[in-house]
User: Fold this.
Amino acid sequence: MRLLYQFPTWMQHLYRGVTWRRDTGVSASKTVYLTFDDGPIPEATPEILDILGQYGVKATFFVVGDNILKYPHIYARMCEEGHRIGNHTMHHIKGTRYSLDEYLKDEDACAQVIGSQQAATGSQPRLADTMLFRPPYGKMTYRQKRAILERGYEIVLWDVLTHDYNARYTPERMMDIVRRYTRPGSIINFHDSIKSCDRTIRVLPQVIEWLFEQGYAIQTL
Assistant:
């Protein structure tokens, strides 16, 4: 069952060069990272941003380029409110079904949209020195992984999967996953998507309050 929520160490070693959690060190403060995939969309992202704002929390959003083009005002709000942006491809494609060239073209298209929206709206996405990339579905080939790393990205996966996209998972079950598997440096995976929005919006305040009660700081990647 652990594999469903948190990839074991031996499997993480097979994907060298990919970030599963932030190694904060023994003496570091308790820090975790909330991440959201697949947005921006009007059904989920604005309310998630409202919740984050209420608690003074900044998160990392792995955005789909096509959704940025459809909802540039929501994307601009993400940037204006200080959340960090990562590339999640242009069309949310599963790497194992595409050639290397096709995959890189889709990644590049998303990167260009992120840049063009910055110029069009004046919004400054938090890209920092290292660009972030998360493969949709967490799946990509070895060649795709190597090529994305060579382009200067940090590939970020997660070590706590909430399953918010799965209708069989109640908010209570999601909360239990967070309690059981979160540790210093954890990268917690949520989605701002149609499939997940109701469960994510219901459980997110509970997650944030529990993290604060446990003494965790929540930061962007």
